[in-house]
Write a structure and sequence with these properties.
By secondary structure, this protein is of the alpha/beta class. It has seven helices and nine strands, in the order H-H-H-H-E-E-H-E-E-H-E-H-E-E-E-E. The chain binds zinc ion. The site of zinc ion (ZN) has 8 residues, from loops.
Length: 227
């Protein structure tokens, strides 16, 4: 950068060249990011075909429906918790993806995207969703497991992150609007807040978590892995 500045005469040509370089760099950065953001597990044929038409919303946590029957059904489904981290609801996790209510037939479809495709918690969550809706007068309920786009820790709500910390599990890094992940940063101890922690095992109490230990307060803790 400094070398380029030294011999470049100020003027319009120079500005144009700088602009062209900035554009090239921006394109390179975007390509690199797109490559990095497409892990193999997400790279199914469906994802490839859908990518162009995918609404930006599709890649983010879903908002609650505004009103009506679907809002009411969403709120019931949103009371179901993750059996592995029972302080988190499937809404906190961003696992709850959609609710459809067919007015004529009265049938309900709930869409969920599990945190891992092999997550054994899926069956428990499915049973709980059906259970709570049956208990509230919805007799025809189906739960659809949607694997694409894949779940990401970005979908974890701010409230979910706070609950995780209070539960003693280090939350994954803060969401970033540009889609980058916080590589190389230490994991903060959820008990004393120290950044002096180290990983003991890639897997904690479940495969979704890693086991860490705090070098200040000596407490081992789970870290909810970012992915
Ligand atoms: Zn600590």
């Amino acid at each position: 950068m400094a070398a380029a500045m030294d011999h470049a005469a100020p003027g319009r040509d120079h500005d144009a060249e700088v602009d062209a370089r900035k554009t090239r760099n921006a394109l390179v950065t975007r390509d690199a990011r797109e490559t990095r953001d497409a892990p193999e597990s997400r790279d199914t044929l469906d994802a490839q075909n859908d990518r162009d038409t995918l609404d930006a919303l599709e890649l983010e946590a879903r908002p609650r429906p505004q009103s009506g029957a679907e809002r009411a059904i969403w709120e019931l489904a949103a009371t179901v918790v993750d059996p592995e981290v029972p302080v988190l609801t499937i809404e906190d996790l961003g696992v709850l993806r959609g609710v459809t209510f067919a007015t004529a037939s009265g049938s309900v479809t709930v869409e969920i995207t599990p945190t891992y495709s092999g997550c054994p918690a899926v069956d428990a969550m499915r049973d709980d969703i059906v259970g709570v809706l049956h208990g509230n007068g919805y007799d025809d309920v189906s739960v659809k497991v949607v694997l694409s786009p894949a779940w990401t820790t970005d979908w974890l709500s701010d409230e979910g992150r706070t609950k995780l910390e209070q539960y003693g599990i280090a939350a994954p890094g803060p969401r970033r609007s540009d889609g980058t992940v916080s590589l190389g940063l230490g994991i903060r101890c959820p008990r004393c807040g120290s950044m002096h922690t180290r990983q003991l095992s890639r897997f904690g109490s479940t495969s979704c978590k890693a086991l860490y230990v705090c070098q200040r307060c000596q407490e081992p803790f789970d870290y909810f892995k970012e992915h």
